[in-house]
Amino acid sequence: xxxxxxxxxxxxxxxxxxxxxxxxxxxxxxxxxxxxxxxxxxxxxxxxxxxxxxxxxxxxxxxxxxxxxxxxxxxxxxxxx
Length: 81
Known about the structure:
The chain has about 80 residues and is mainly β. The chain is about 0% helix and about 35% strand. The chain has a four-stranded antiparallel beta sheet with strand order 1-4-5-8, with no helix packed on it. The radius of gyration is 12 Å and the shape is globular.
């Protein structure tokens, strides 16, 4: 795991709560594997082995983002802007 993501606290509703915070920078809970998928898309896998996933594959603002078993689906492909 070579990437650390942290910033202002951001939370989503349970289950599978994703919390990105400046607390404990460098801790295992904030280590993510960033993998290039091609076409400018990336996947993010947590130290626990779960992937950052757009629940329901919705694009609306405020949609739940959670940790889910990696499946290579479009809900786990992210574009960095």
